[in-house]
Amino acid sequence: MNIQSPRLVWIAGLGLFLATLDTGIMNIALPTLQAAWHTTAATIAWTVVAYTVTLAGTVLFWGRLADRTGSQRIFWWGLIGFAVASGACGAAPTLDWLMAARALQGLASAMIQGTAIALATQDLPPAHQNLATGTLALLQGLGPVIGPALGGIVLTWTSWRGLFWINLPVTIPLIALLARRHAPLPQRTGEAPALDVTGNGLVMLTVSTGLLALTVPGPLRTLCTAAAMVAVVATLWWERLSQSPLIPRSLWSSRTFWAAAGAVVMVGGATALGFMVPPYMLHLWGHWAPWQVGLINLSAPLMLVVFSRPASRLLNRQSAARVMLGGLGLMAGAFAVLAITAGNRSPILLVLGLGSYGLGAAAFFPANLTAILAVTGRDAQGVMGALQRMAINLGTAIDAAVVGAFLVHGAHGHGVSQAGIRTSWAYGMTTLLTAMAGLLLAHHRRSRAGADPRRKFRGIAGD
Hints:
The chain is built from 19 helices and no strands. By secondary structure, it is mostly helical.
């Protein structure tokens, strides 16, 4: 069976949707799991931590391996691992079993997320890549946001085990489709990139200890923070000496590359804020049924679904930098309005604000992915796609912890405060404006270094 490249884009996108869906779908089930296993909230949170640590810690490794051996093989084995791990999670007889299965699921998710972008774009001509990145942006942005709403529906009609079993009807057909397709070796313009095991191990140690520092309490947090700082220094030192660094050495001096990578970290965090804060707002307002909360929370992903592919077509007429800045401006404006109107208790304003954020995200994600892929050749598409996924996951994890602290600050008992909600929106607006400033500063410095002024905002690559 010969699968056409456009169909391969949708296969990669569906795998990416499932892998990102499980990032958010567990959040709504945490109280249910806590009651089912008769344990504490801190203990049950490790079902999320185990998944996030193995995902964020290994995704770059799989991206580099995809550049060396081909993305389709790793993506296929990732789907198999994800299906097996999902079944094991749903059948877990003990909490320890569930945590171990979640760690395996995170590892398989990293294989999918680290290779999906390279798989979708490897056989496409440049003229069709913008539409492909728009499709991937649509599905990867939809997964973590729609997860809580879908999780609420599943929990209403089944038990928590159904949250994992719903992955099987999608993963199994995708596995069967790819099993019948020949897996070509990657087309290269140079030598195959070496697989730097030490560098990947240091990156995993950095990410793992950093994420644990955000989640563990007391003295263990201090220990993890110190370990993360040491791991960062060791990683930078090794990357400087390595003959095959994870991030190509030519990019270390690229201000526009780092501006684009930093922007996606901040947008990943803002997305976490966008689906965490509204349920708390509506709970504070009172008298909202779960299905009503779910519908309001779907405002952003609905706009993302409707406008991701049309927004990707803008890249045929506008530069990636210009589209990114427009998307960031829409998102920051939406959060500014929500911060100002947080006390009005108006569901219409909340829907409009979230919808505007979703429209901005629909413009930002395809442009950001295009910009990051543009600064490297075909030989590093896997690791660059994996880098974007790792950046999004890191931003989500960091801002989830930060916003959680904002929401409870000044609250009475176990509730949230109006001031905490307003501060959360203002914090999100500030991070998005910072991302805009970074992109503008990178362009300004490139222009002063000798870029042709007539090519202003022509592209974000090419430092």
